Amino acid sequence: MKNAMILHKANEFVKKGNYESFLAYCTQDTKWVFVGERILEGRDKVREYMKEFYLEPPVFTVEKTIEDGSYVTVTGEITLKAANGTYNHYDYCDVWRFENGKIAELKAFVIEKKS
Question: The whole model's pTM is what?
Answer without folding.
Answer: 0.93
